[in-house]
Amino acid sequence: MIDRTGLAEFLRVRREALQPEDVGLPRGHRRRTSGLRREEVALLCHMSTDYYARLERERGPQPSEQMLASIAQGLHLSHEERDHLFHLGGHTPPARGVSSAHISPGLLRVLDRLEDTPAEIVTELGETLRQSRLGVALTGDNTTLVGPDRSLGFRWFTDPSARRLYAAEEHAFLSRLYASGLREIAGRRGPGSPASALADLLLERSAEFRELWAAHEVGVRPKDTKRFVHPEVGALELHCQRLVDPDQAHALLVYTAVPGTESAEKLRLLSVLGTQPLR
């Protein structure tokens, strides 16, 4: 059963404890609000200001599990705080572990400070959970995808358009990389895991994947330099740095160019151009 008073008080306290710079928002001038404004939290949680305000006023319908998950992420809650939020909202908290989509506050804080750098947070299956502004400009918005299409490795073998963003001479290596990586994860997580289910689906749909899977290759690792072909700025060579949250099996990927190179100039141009529809 929902605890409306407890939920309202918890949301208000957490909102007032956060500052705009804590969540990657500009502070602006003449700011008198203690903590974040309700409209700022609503923006972070991808919901209307009216809906969020009603929760703080102990009104409105019981929030769904999806709404609570969005609020937990928007307010940068820890796993303990997220679970408490779900209990207050009258729901059972989601399971923790490697299959969880809840990003740790620490990883989110790092991403929030990388708006002028291509960056994304991904799961071990290559599902994009969050992107920086320039990350969206580089690869498109991958957070809106659903089902198995959320996984880049799945799209690589089932959707030809997924390969357009990568240099053609890298395609064969990337195919080996995704098949090898999925085999390692499926072996580590075991039968019945999301990784195993994804492999079964790819075995049904992709002849190329079936051939690579039959080779039982493991141990293929990503190259430090990734070669992109962007529809607006052309070829880029970017170095990829990875920060891993071992508890969640999430990774923050940060893409940078060597200063003074053509790729660095193209990144600056991409920042000016902003996001482009890549699909």
UniProtKB/TrEMBL annotation:
Pfam families linked to this entry: HTH_31, MLTR_LBD
CDD domains attached to this UniProt entry: HTH_XRE
Source domain of life: Bacteria
InterPro entries the UniProt entry points to: Cro/C1-type_HTH, Lambda_DNA-bd_dom_sf, MLTR_LBD
An annotated Gene Ontology molecular function: DNA binding
All residue ranges annotated as the HTH cro/C1-type domain in the record: 35-82
Positions in coiled-coil regions: none
PANTHER family tied to this protein: BLL4672 PROTEIN, BLL4672 PROTEIN-RELATED
The name this protein goes by in its record: XRE family transcriptional regulator
